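Researcher: I'm preparing a figure for a lab meeting and need a structural model of a single chain. I don't have an experimental structure, so a prediction will have to do for now. The sequence is pasted below. Please return the structure as tokens so I can convert it later.
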Amino acid sequence: MLGAPSIILRSRADADIIVRNGLVFDGLGTPGRQLDVVIANGRLVSLARKATARGAVEIDAHGLAVAPGFIDIHSHGDGSLWEDPRAESLVRQGITTIVVGQDGSSRAPRATGEGRADDARRQFATFAELWSAIDKLHPAVNVASMVGLGTIRDVVVGGDDRPATPQELARMQQFVRAAIADGACGASTGLEYTPGAFAPREELIALCGPLAAKQLPYATHMRNEDDRLIEAIDEATAVARGAGCPLQISHLKTQGPRNWSKLDTAFARVAAARAAGCDAAFDRYPYIAYQTGLTNLFPVWSRDGSTAAFLARLTDPSTADKIKQETLAKIELLGGWDNVMIANVADASDRAAEGARLGTYAKSQNMDPYAMAMALLQRSRGNVGMVGFAMSEDNLDRILAHPQGMVCSDGGAFAVDGPSHRGHPHPRGLGTFPRILGRYVRERKTLTLTQAIHKMTAQPASRLHLTDRGRLAPRLSADVVVFDPATVADKATYEDPFQYPVGIAAVIVNGVIALRDGERGASHTGKALRLA
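Model: Understood. Here is the structure written out token by token.
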């Protein structure tokens, strides 16, 4: 029966695993071929029409697709990894590698003497320490990381809205160089967040300069994704060209109905950058809603300094009205308060708000929606997550189909039980990759199966110089996913996100079965991926 691979145990095997009779996609955009995949000692040994080797474990993949393990080029899956290294929602999507350190925030560096590596934030002094901690953790998936330029700015400059001094800029550059030397796979910014929002273009160019030698990408959550989208793309391109490095636009979107018509111009800007010699590309998740912090509805200037300072400004007579007017303008862009769903709160007294549309929830509490937003933020000390509904399905089709478009989740790692069952997350953390294969390949025909696999495997691997992943070829690491193209689908929804996908038959991470027939493997074989 399709969807449940047969597992055959053999004695006197000369291979660890053989996946037989599947339609094998190498990840490079080549059409699938009927092949057997032979795995031993964590590596792909051969891809043959009829392998003569005997496997200790044999998987009958007749009627199924066999592909490289999926690479999530923009992930926040490390957010729960130390509490729950099972990474259930990742493995069950077929993800074998996550790329974290996104949106300007990474788990290294940490200022000397600041906190400890085992504190709640899980910050590490260097990337070498981070890699060591990941390997000791034994996560279920491989982990690569960019260095977050917002994290570096916070360590050196702090949270204030001011330029870095020459001495501070030199120190920040040294942090970037050290991260790259230790194996970071690029640098990221989150220019709608603090303190990254306070970095001028010249600072970004200087900090991305060390990427040029290895041609590692600058990945940016741009300064604006709605009314000033095109200006933000121009700035991102200017940074990459000034630094001489590739550009990766994170989760490209045209936010708010009045900006949906800007997609052609956005694509034209990417094409112009490439024509001028800038290796520009982008990624996107297959949903029309995004997730961020509720504070992101409020103007950047109001978030200058500490969280305490921001919360004080919300009620300060000299700033309160201006903040409210700018926030309400953002809500108008989104189409109203019910296009904001509360994803998570830190204060337990507000748990009932999780999963609720803010406008409707405020009404149920006999409160004005803006007053409710402020109250939630005050009680959770700014730590409130939200999902915003603001994008176009037609534009999403075009972004996913674009030759420079790759697939990301921009999501965390969750489980239906245990410590990573928390909040009311965006469904992308549990459904992104099967959703591509089900909704956008099989149903909407936005992509062919071959194209989709390429965008989830070899294309991101090449982008990040992960030379040992993303393809099925002899001698490469054996990260493999087996799935049923006829049934694979996401099940997580905005209303009920804690649902695993269907149709993922088997997942192999570094040559060991992590998932088969819905059951998890006993071993976690993911590791830190340090670039050479």
